[in-house]
Fold this sequence. Notes:
single chain, alpha/beta, four-stranded parallel sheet, four-stranded antiparallel sheet, 16 helices, 15 strands, elongated
Amino acid sequence: MSLKLYNTLTRTKEDFVPIDPANVRLYVCGPTVYDYAHIGNARPVIVFDVLFRLLRHVYGADHVTYVRNITDVDDKINARAVRDYPGVPPVEAIRTLTETTYGQFQADVAALGCLPPTFTPRATEHVATMVALIERLIARGYAYAAEGHALFHVPAMKAYGALARRSLDDMIAGARVDVAPYKRDPMDFVLWKPSSDDEPGWPSPWGRGRPGWHIECSAMSLDTLITPSGGGFQCDDPLKNTFDIHGGGIDLVFPHHENEIAQTSCALGTPRMANVWMHNGFLQVEGEKMSKSLGNFTTIRDLLADWPGEVLRLTMLRSHYHQPIDWTVRGMEESWRVLDDWYAVTADAGEGAVAPAVLDALADDLNTPKAIAELHGLKQQPAALAATLRMLGFLADTPAAWAARRPAADVDAAAVNALVAARLAARKAKNFAESDRLRDELAALGVTLKDGKDPATGEPVTTWEAKR
RNA sequence: GGCCACGUGGCGGAGUGGUUACGCAGCGGAUUGCAAAUCCGUCUACGGGGGUUCGAUUCCCUCCGUGGCCUCCA
């Protein structure tokens, strides 16, 4: 099967060729853990989970390494820790905040049907590698120390801007940043910055401080994906200092990913860091940009209170990952209806194989809307439908558990059963006025009836369920 | 201001230089005492204007609209 992926680096859809088919390596930028993740954060998590599952299917479950980092050092974290844990020593407050928040994140994404990545490194556990990377960059003339900072000197790198496709002139022309006096060039970015006593800090050749934003991903991908495969500081082989796929939100293209590339490629002598760069599009809520001021800042946790995780997952995958998506209640309702149908169709399904048509759609740059269309075509093949849905991270519930997820009206089952029996008797006696009256009465209680016939005897039978 | 995406039927959403996916809703039929559920069938589209072409929703230009990035936001 040939897998095609759109590569931001080349702006084209390319055939995916792993560096080592026995170990396909994927890195995705993970959460900064200071608050509940919002529904926009869920998009890359779900999209790259589908990619992870597809890669595992194609190359084998043991031949894919998926890394999603945890950013647990960040100024927003520091600020939140001070706010939420007054009186607690900062280091302790930060640890409590990041551990708590990451626990929430893990629970949220598990509910969304996402597999755990192979590794989930924390930035704070890779500071030594960050320091080593910065030292290497300084030694090779790509970075310099100034006033307790270490900075990457952008003009030292010829290819800078290749991912974002913008020239230095463009960036300077559009610059709206205050240029710190210790910068040699306005575009230079921070690799390391000094910490005050109540901020998290680590010893370094430039004094006690903490990493800049971008260096952590260079360090964690190096430690988890490059060094274990024979690359790293002791290796100048560009092929060994590159991994396969790097993913994240479209907003990370610049400056985050551009700077990651600058750091890793200049430190390790590799031209591109990762062969394929994938970026998911943004999400709006009910047609508006999601923001706290508009009051439509929607967390995954809030949505999970009212909607099954699989509903959120399907809603996310009904749009191609590259397209913008408008997140609406109507969209979630439609997803729920579709999943109800799939759960019903697959209730008694046996063992089946994953449908090739769905795999083909996924192999075409993760065309999940096309894949879903193909799923609709599998209703006559319940076993294949079930196997394919499971491969995509659906059907984790039993049919009964799924049905129970819909908030039901609070009804007295014995009373309902009595009314249903009375109606059945009335129908048998052809007293339809009475049977319709009983049906209306049940409807008023929030009970929906399903009439049918016993397949063996032909006797009329009625089942019911409570709707919300 | 600079750079970059996107704009498909009532709604969601693929795709393609010429046979108008798929889903939800709607409508029609089967079924039903009547309904519900189910099954079958079915209507509606490619932002505006130019251009290339035998032919464009699909390629090019332009305008309009929406959104993103421009130092720490998926």
